[in-house]
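Hi, can you check this record?
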Amino acid sequence: LDEPTNHLDLDAVIWLQSYLNTTKQTTLLVSHDAHFLNCVATDIILLEGCQLHYFPGDFDSFRRRHASYVAEQRRKAESAHKEQHKLHAALNKGDGAAGTKAGRKAIKERIETLQSAPTPTKEYRVLFDFPAAARRLNP
């Protein structure tokens, strides 16, 4: 269902919520109505970065879990970035594990692994700035 509440009056929305809550069928639903989603959604699947991410629960639960998921992905990416810098420094210095051929190979493999890890997607916000009307319109 694509935006099923857009052109429904309150009684029709209530009927649709009741129907969706009693049906045993799986329903794919797209809606910007957070209240409606909270009433009918039992699981949320997010398509992001060419991957599907599963979140059990209603829409409010999804928002909380998704925020935690994004924060954790950013922490992991930052940690991997720091590790890469340390490994590059060790290679340049040539001491410790980087002092041997096998150690340098292992460090290079680890750097390649860290570089190939998926990076968290950037969240974009679009801001619109509408200039004030040059003249006042009559209602």
